[in-house]
């Protein structure tokens, strides 16, 4: 009897370790799944199915096949602002993230169908509203980048009832296209 009890004790230790490791791994998987779900909320359903998902450190959370990359809400934000970017937008995003110059020479399309928590219309690096940075919280929208000449003539007024130019005159200017109401 003593031997059986001792044998059981030996198996309980590794079994408990395996169970705890599995639970810890599932916690990570749950966190990753939450990031994936958040990121894919930015895209239309057909696009979301084939989109790759990465986190803000560049770790791939889900493979993709359609050329779009979706990112969850940046960890620096309290609200939601996931996005799905095509290849042209990914190049743009890398330049913006690293504060490097970029010349946009092709059309790019990005989706933010979950809306965003706000950004300055004039300062690509503003972190919060101020008296002079024209802060806007946008509902569901698309974003378009294009060569600068194609963006000339668009309004910079987000309340004019149509597309508007954000970050005009910077390397990061882009057209915002609202597709749903602002909250």
* Portion in helices: 25-40%
Whole-angstrom Rg: 22 Å
Terminus-to-terminus distance? 69 Å
Major sheet summary line: 8 strands, mixed
User: How do the strands line up in the largest sheet?
Assistant: 2-1-3-4-5-8-10-9
Q: Helix and strand string, N-terminal first?
A: HHEEEEHEEEEHEE
User: Helix segment count?
Assistant: 4
Number of strands: 10
Which structural category fits the helices and strands?
alpha+beta
Query: What's the mean pLDDT score?
Result: 86
Which stretches are low in confidence, meaning pLDDT under 50 for 5 or more residues running?
1-26
Shape: globular
Estimated share of beta-strand residues: 15-25%
Keywords:
4 helices; 32% helix; disordered N terminus; 19% strand; 183 residues
Quick structural gist:
The protein has 183 residues and is an alpha+beta fold.
Polypeptide structure, described:
The protein is built from 4 helices and 10 strands. Mean pLDDT is about 85; it is low at about 1-25. Helix content is about 30%, strand content about 20%. The protein is α+β, with helices and mostly antiparallel strands and about 180 residues long. The chain has helices at about 1-40, 45-50, 85-95, 150; strands spanning about 50-55, 60, 70, 85, 110, 120, 135, 140-145, 165, 175-180.
């Amino acid at each position: 009897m003593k031997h059986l009890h001792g044998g059981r004790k030996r198996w309980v230790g590794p079994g408990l370790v395996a169970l705890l490791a599995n639970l810890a791994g599932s916690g990570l998987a749950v966190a990753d799944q939450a990031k994936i779900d958040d990121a894919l909320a930015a895209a239309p359903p057909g696009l979301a199915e084939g989109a790759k998902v990465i986190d803000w450190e560049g770790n791939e959370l889900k493979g993709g096949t359609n050329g779009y990359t979706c990112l969850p809400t940046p960890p620096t934000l309290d609200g939601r602002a996931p996005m799905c970017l095509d290849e042209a937008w990914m190049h743009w995003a890398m330049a913006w993230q690293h504060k490097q110059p970029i010349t946009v020479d092709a059309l790019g399309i990005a989706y933010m169908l979950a809306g965003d928590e706000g950004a300055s219309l004039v300062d690509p690096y503003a972190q919060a509203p101020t008296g002079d940075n024209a802060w806007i919280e946008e509902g569901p929208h698309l974003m378009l980048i294009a060569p600068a000449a194609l963006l000339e003539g668009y309004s910079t007024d987000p309340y004019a009832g149509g597309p508007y130019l954000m970050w005009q005159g910077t390397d990061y200017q882009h057209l915002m296209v609202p597709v749903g109401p602002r909250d």
